[in-house]
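Morning. Coffee machine broken again, so started the prediction first thing and wrote up yesterday's gels while waiting. Chain of 149 residues, entered below exactly as on the submission form.
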Amino acid sequence: MKVREIMTADPVCCTPEDNAQKVAKMLCEQNIGSVPVVLDQSSRKLVGVVTDRDLCCKVIAAGLSPANTKIDKVLTLNPVTCRDGENVASCEDLMQQHQIRRIPVLDGEGRCIGIVSQADVALKEKPEKVSKTVTEISRPSGKEPSAAA
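Came back before lunch.
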């Protein structure tokens, strides 16, 4: 099975210039936990990822103003990605290896065309494989979780 068969196509994206409050609203309205950060909405060139945890830990807990904090201050640069033509197994391996729950999907030009979440894998994959992926993602690593988690 290929990544394109399970990914959520055309995901909601934000830009580095968006503020944390706007992105938090996007997360709430879309009921999602992370947003790909693209250079601009027309090119959709991926530059990073921002998660609900990033907003909580790097903005709210740090006492910063969500309305005045641009996403470029809190995003994770160069996130783990995959291509739509890759096998789902390689995407799962990346999730396990990096202990992340969501992976942006890029086309050959580096544009964000989709996202694969742990839930996408769970709905399409065999229970044994899902169990292994969830276990590996959730395994204590002895370090702070990745911002792309």
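The CA atoms of residues 60 and 108 lie 36 Å apart. Going to sketch it on the whiteboard this afternoon.
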